[in-house]
Amino acid sequence: MQTPYFYQLKHDPNGRIIEKQEAVEDSHVIWEYSYDKKGRLSKALLNGRLICQCEYDKHGRRIRDFLPATAGPNFRNYTYTMDNRLLRAGDNTFTHDDNGFRSIWSNKGTYYLYGYAPDYRLLSMEIEDKDCVYTYHHDKNGQRKAKYLNGHLVEAYQWLDFIRLKAFQDGRMWYEFKYNDDERLPSTMVREDGALFSLYYDQIGSLRVVANQHGNVIQEILYEPFGGIMKKTNPNFRIPIGYAGGLHDQNLDFVRFGWRDYDTNTSRWTAPDPLGDKGGDPDWYGYCLDDPVNGVDPLGLFRFGKRLLSFLPKGAHWIGTNGSTADQRNYELKHEHGFFEDGSKKNLGFYKSGVQWDTENIKDFTLEAKHYDDKRMRRTIKSIDPGKYKLIKGSTGKSKNCQDYADALRHQYTLFARGDKQR
What we know:
single chain, mainly beta
């Protein structure tokens, strides 16, 4: 049976996509992409029609764009504060709180008020004078578990990990998502009445087509390159997986990727990068270095965590094996592990048998507060050979245990970060 959705890519000598052909059943479209000298998207054409045009300043920020299918028929000019907070995009103005989170969006006399927690959780959005308040509830891990409109439940969520949905309720029925192995995105979805749906994505993971069990398309979503929705058939059929595979909020036009919300109207995050300069983009609110066609940043973070050794009873404590000294000298009675928060290759640690992937459950660990850029950490992991495992120092030099391995990764990561900053 012919697949309901298909795409084919053509690349330039630098590996960037310059053409994408897409087919949804019997309908075919061709995208053409152009980039500036720094690899940022400058133009996108759909069947020869200009859909996206962007210009950037010397700091890498967008200063002018044209998105006729989603933002109107006129060019928009952008202005910013010295620390990259967006002030204006065309007729839209923006205000941020002391933490750098968006707090107000003003559009033609209508004010949208946002409430964020310091840990990046979106708590509320109110449309002033419209009797419209969205509130968001979260689980103990800070992940969104429910969305309410004026106190009434409209959506609920269950999670497999930091970015992968396990199930979703649209206010009436539950939908369960099924994944192939460790894929970031689900391949199928089962409604509580037994109906089965297949999900199809483009090259960055945006949900493009939903088909029923007979292979018939029941929903198609077409996006401009930065995520604005140009076309959505069967709009009452709600699935929260959206642009680049993030959690789509259709009422706010936000896409949630782990810790932050991405605003498809301005192509910017609503909060600064928690890694700051270490995140790799001098514009802390910029998305994918303004190359959304070739890149995706579902979360972009990595964290270390610790748990008690498996042979110890819960709450066990031996004098001298906890605290800062034991931590610094790496003889805590704990296993230290690293977790990627992007849904792929999601954890690794060092054991007697060597470095092992996907052996632990993040729920068993206490995570440290510091975050690391996942791409740089992957480079770091490839560069480190931990050698033969050695639990304790003994009389012949240094130990080489899981805690030593974690420290080696931290040290090498710091060296890479310094080198990247000097480029």
